[in-house]
Specification:
By secondary structure, the protein is of the alpha+beta class. The chain is built from five helices and nine strands.
């Protein structure tokens, strides 16, 4: 059904959301959904016996590859959204090989390499004031220096900073 709907979209941008849910502290549900009008419509999913909502790339890679095969050939730009539990260089590389863009939340402990500035942790580069954002272009991230990638860093209103997050 979703294939039929997607085939009529033509060259529109398709947003996919990758997420996990832990069931009965024993099973992990990995779900890849198409975002449509603010709703997540499941495209592909997998249940694994796993005591955590965070799963290794090797576990969900086949799910993404199956989902890519489900997308019509005429699909426009595909952009994958995922939370920080999926921030993995292998996922970024797979997205690149599939021709997908990606928007991943990353942890404040990620390393960022900027030409002429050296390396710093994300938490060191965050704007000091709430409600502000910083945009970095052509940076490399993680110890593997993946990139270049654009990076958006923001401190939302009401965010007291990384130390407050750790105390909660």
């Amino acid at each position: 059904m979703i294939q039929a709907a997607l085939s009529s979209w033509g060259q529109w941008k398709v947003y996919l959301a990758l997420d996990t849910t832990l069931l009965w502290d024993r099973y992990g549900l990995i779900c890849l959904s198409v975002i449509y009008r603010g709703r997540a419509v499941p495209l592909a999913w997998q249940v694994v016996e796993h005591g955590s909502a965070q799963v290794a790339f090797s576990v969900y890679r086949p799910l993404l590859q199956r989902a890519a095969a489900l997308l019509p050939e005429r699909t426009g730009k595909v952009v994958l959204w995922a939370d920080r539990g999926f921030a993995d260089v292998n996922l970024m590389r797979l997205c690149g090989s599939l021709g997908w863009g990606y928007r991943l939340r990353i942890k404040s402990s990620f390393l960022v390499y900027r030409r002429g500035h050296g390396s710093a942790l994300v938490e060191q580069l965050l704007p000091k004031r709430q409600g502000k954002a910083v945009f970095l272009h052509h940076v490399h991230i993680t110890g593997q220096r993946h990139g270049p990638v654009p990076l958006a860093l923001a401190r939302p209103p009401g965010d007291e900073g990384p130390l407050a997050d750790r105390q909660r």
